[in-house]
Write a structure and sequence with these properties.
Strands 2-1-3-4-5-11 form a six-stranded parallel beta sheet, sandwiched between helices. A four-stranded parallel beta sheet has the order 7-6-8-9, with helices on both faces. The radius of gyration is 26 Å and the shape is elongated. It is of the alpha/beta class. The protein contains 14 helices and twelve strands. Strand 6, helix 9 and strand 7 form a beta-alpha-beta unit. Bound molecules: beta-D-fructofuranose. Beta-D-fructofuranose binds next to helix 5.
Length: 353
């Protein structure tokens, strides 16, 4: 079959050559299967198709694979919901979701699976950076555009990253706490930190940023730091043990709202005066169980908006696939501090019901 097509191409080329010598080089230039597939196309059509990415240019349906680190957490479900809602506006985009349930090996397999399925674009929010780096690079090296959301991978082998600045969020939290400790005359001001999963980039960035933020007030001391992997269930026993070992805690810095809420419960169970402790979280989901409402109800003292980036990911996916737009390598999303002065307004602003 290939031979026949090649033969046809040669005949066509020689015919064209005799008709007009100027067109001949363009007709014979493309090599391999692509040239054979377009053997009947005119020289101009052939050149246009090749320049705009061959077969992809003719597509009117696109399959997007969304690899989620863990769907069990409300913030991640919100990300998936935003992706689904944004994609629903474009009938030509179909999104298939995979849930790695916080398992790196499962997430690697999910991405491999997507590659096998022939997805046109990959969106991934990686559980941990190092274990997911190679499979993301593999997809990218095969020419699949890759949008990395929120947590990062190592290196540069992805198309773009979309997320908020976790270092900045940590710094803002640290500065808030530096001031809160001053205002409440805590010298020293004892902080316990409940960290996110260590191999997930926001955990390091939120931890480092916080340390930067509290540097302005030398009375602020981090007296204990433990990992609860972002999970509320895990943060309950972890914070309970931390309160037992450190009865004079002034501040809890939790790397996300679910772990902050868990610390509130543990402090309550330990019989501590909650009004004397500052509870800090991050995420600020505008939902009845989310962080903004928690600040409104006086459980969390402060939290920070951490947008999921779901809508932006679909917006960019569409631009990459349909408009052939070259995206920026990094898109940084805005954050906002949520405290008792603005929580009610922000709940409305972010569409809370
Ligand atoms: C959900 C989550 C969020 C957090 C984000 C960091 O898995 O833990 O609560 O802000 O991941 O990547």
């Amino acid at each position: 079959m290939r031979r026949l097509l090649t033969l046809a191409l040669i005949v066509l080329a020689s015919l064209l050559f005799s008709a007009c010598t100027a067109v001949a080089p363009a007709t014979t230039a493309p090599s391999g299967a692509a040239a054979g597939d377009t053997a009947t196309a005119t020289a101009t059509e052939e050149a246009t198709t090749a320049a705009s990415g061959g077969e992809a240019a003719a597509k009117d349906k696109f399959l997007i694979g969304m690899s989620q680190a863990n769907k069990g957490e409300p913030w991640r479900q919100a990300m998936n919901d935003q992706i689904a809602a944004a994609a629903a506006q474009y009938p030509e985009l179909e999104v298939v979701f995979a849930d790695a349930a916080q398992n790196n090996a499962k997430q690697v397999a999910d991405v491999e699976n997507f590659i096998q399925q022939g997805i046109d674009l990959l969106i991934i929010s990686p559980n941990e950076a190092a274990p997911l780096t190679d499979v993301v690079a593999k997809a990218y090296d095969q020419g699949i555009p890759v949008i990395v959301l929120d947590r990062k991978v190592n290196g540069e082998k992805f198309t773009m990253w979309i997320g908020a600045d976790n270092q900045l969020i940590g710094k803002k939290a640290g500065e808030f706490i530096g001031q809160w400790c001053k205002d409440n005359s805590h010298t020293p001001c004892n902080v316990i930190e409940i960290r996110g999963l260590e191999g997930a980039t926001p955990a390091k960035e939120r931890g480092d940023g916080f340390r930067e933020g509290i540097a302005g007030n030398p009375d602020v001391k981090i007296i204990a730091s433990q990992n609860a992997d972002w999970l509320r269930e895990k943060a309950i026993p972890v914070s309970q043990a931390m309160f037992q070992a450190n009865p004079d805690v002034n501040v809890v810095y939790a790397h996300n709202d679910p772990m902050g809420e868990a610390a509130v419960i543990s402090a309550q169970n330990a019989g501590l005066d909650l009004s004397k402790i500052a509870f800090v979280g991050i995420d600020a989901l505008p939902t009845p169980d989310g962080g903004i409402k928690s600040v409104m109800d006086g459980r969390l003292t402060v939290t920070y908006v951490y947008p999921t980036g779901g809508a932006q990911a679909i917006d960019w996916a569409r631009k990459i696939l349909e408009d052939k737009e070259e995206p920026p390598k990094t898109v940084v999303l805005e954050t906002e501090q949520v405290d008792s002065t603005n929580a009610a307004d922000l709940y409305t602003k972010y569409g809370g019901k």
